Amino acid sequence: MSVVGSHEVFEILTREHAPMLAAYLRGVVRDPAAADDLFQETMVVAWRTLDRFDRTRPFAPWLRGIAKHVVLAHRRKAARGEVLCDEATLDQFDRRFEEWRERPGDTLDEQLDGLRDCLDALHEPFGEAVRLRYRDELETPELAKRLNVSIEALKKRLQRGRAKLQECLERKRILADSPT
Amino acid sequence: MNATPEPHPRDDAKRRGEAVVSDWLDGPRGPAALAAAAERFEALDEPARRRAADALLIASLARRALRPDPAADERRIARAMAAIRANVALASAAPDRAAASLAPVASATSPPVAVPAPSVASPRRATRATRGWLVLLATAALVLLSVYVNRHPPAATAQAAVRRATEAAERSLDHRYLVHATLTGPLQDWTWDARLDLRGANQFVLAGRGPAGEFLVGSDGREHWFVPALSLAPVRAGRDKGRLAAWLREGGSPDVAQPFLDLRSLLARLESRYTLTLADAEPLPNAPPRPRGALADGNATWTRVRGEAKDDPGPWPDTVELWCDPQTGQAVRTTLAWRDRGLVPRLRELTLQLDAPVVWPPDWFTHAAHHAPDRPVSRAD
After folding, report:
1. DSSP 8-state symbol, B115
2. What are the angstrom distances between the C-alpha of B307 and each of B204, B273, B312, B321?
3. Which among B10, B22, B109 has the least Cβ separation from residue A155?
4. Dmax over Cα atoms in chain B, in whole Å?
5. Is any Cβ of chain B less than 8 angstroms from the Cβ of A51?
6. For B206, B317, B344, B381, which has the most beta carbons within 10 A of its beta carbon?
7. What DSSP character marks residue A106?
8. CA max distance for chain A
9. Helix, strand, or coil (residue A122)
10. Cβ–Cβ of A155/B55 closer than 8 Å?
């Protein structure tokens, strides 16, 4: 197969796993542009080390393994707090993505239906805060002003909202209960 | 005096992990605040860090669930592929530089070109790097060949081309197909046109004309809906997929055309129930521009597959012609044709033609994007 042909194959694999990888990176990297740079770096490393991929195993965990090292290397170089994770955090991400992979649906976006149900069921005032934050991408000061609450009260609402989403996902058995 | 009860260790870990994430995600954005959040994170024990990880993941997935952005996915893929091509080109021209180069291509803060890092390799190391790169590329090509054969057979056969077209139809990308049907009726022939907007396999909006005007039937993958042509009629919505056929009929789409509007099912049937031959590649009149993210452009020839029904196809077409993008596999035009079996009304021909590249707004596949906000909505379940 020519290199051009290999590019095509790799692009197919990239397309299949891009949403998962983008969500993985965006979870721990605060700056979206930096997360996009790490996405690219992960893909380039994956391309360069593809001969080490055991094709009897699924591609997604292998790709996340590369992303983990790319993120940890970036964390060492970046300003403190730009990346919030350590090895154990990323291992927990990996376990959780494996649980998502069991969901019905061919793509991550289809597999998020259970989360959408939980978002729909989120009680007020948490639902509104979460929707305005993640759907309308309002930053904290603007969102607090919109909801006419203090920044601390808004932070609590968002924190509770995320916790309730996790409880909902655990009730639905989409996520396994976390052991302590 | 009553002592305050100690929180359960699990709840305590949860609270501490989530509080740190809250500071990091929702607190001030300055470097000092982020560094303080990181310091608190590093002080957490392992159970609390796991809870923090869960909160971070929920935030990331909620963002994706509430605001899907296929255009951003496309941009990331295009950048990554451009970086890989640049890397391979550098490997051919100057492998030592390529081996050192992982600089982002066209990031928000850099120009849209590959910027190789300066080489520090000695000549001997450079030679090793050259050999290493050649070996790596050759091995990668072999691994890719095996992966490809297993998962994505090359489109050297008609079956492979149809399979790739099916896979392309399942990807979560935005497309518009223009539908044109020619029918034979009891008195005369007539045509029916519609627009079919797609995002992946499960989200669609079909806009067609019926006796009362333009109607829409669609689905965001979870809720299915019908916006009748008459603006006084309520919008219908529900989670029962079985209602779609009745709504299409009510809107005014020809019954006989309905089964063929699902491109994925059509392609699956084409692969299993038709004798397929690969026809000569040829330019396709009125073909759309190449999809975004395609690896190459120009040379607008398309893979062309012709299918003949293996046995009596029943209501399905006697012949199918499929033009696909040779790079992405995407179906560019599908033409279905029926022989005259004396049935009336009957379809004579139906074409699904890919329109120019599009990116739909996030809410495009919900009914609310297609009617006045005060229009009543009747929920069927």
Report:
1. -
2. 26, 9, 13, 6
3. B22
4. 94
5. yes
6. B317
7. S
8. 61
9. coil
10. no
Query: Is pTM beyond 0.90 here?
Result: no
Q: What is the pLDDT of residues B59-99, one digit of tens each?
A: 999 999 888 877 788 888 888 887 787 766 555 554 444 44
Q: For residues B192 and B179, what is the distance between their CA atoms, to the nearest angstrom?
A: 8
Cβ B200 vs Cβ B172: under 8 Å? yes
| CA-based nearest distance B89→chain A, Å | 10
Residues from chain B contacting residue A45 (CB–CB below 8 Å): 102
Mutate to test the interface with A, among B46, B51, B84, B363 (most CBs of A within 10 A): B84
Backbone angles phi, psi at B9, to 5 degrees: -50, -40
Query: Sign of dihedral through CA atoms B277, B280, B281, B287?
Result: negative
Q: Which of A39, A115, A180 sits opposite B65 (nearest CB)?
A: A115
* One-letter amino acid of B280: D
**Paired tokens of B43:** 């002080």
Nearest Cα neighbor of A117 from B240, B26, B239 is B239
A25-53 residue pLDDT tens: 999 998 888 899 899 889 988 888 887 77
- Other CB atoms within 10 A of residue B123 CB: 8
How far are the Cα atoms of A23, A129, A157 from residue A123, in angstroms, in the given order?
Answer: 25, 10, 11
User: Three-state SS for B182?
Assistant: strand
Backbone angles phi, psi at B204, to 5 degrees: -155, 155
Host H or E run for residue A77? helix A59-77
Residues facing B334 on adjacent strands:
B322, B352
Neighbours of B370 (CB within 10 A): 17
Of A53, A25, A27, which Cα lies nearest the Cα of A41? Answer: A25
The model's pLDDT over B307-361, given as tens digits with 9 standing for 90+, comes to 999 888 877 889 999 988 877 788 889 999 988 877 767 788 999 998 877 777 8
ipTM over 0.90: yes
Structure tokens at B173: 């990308």
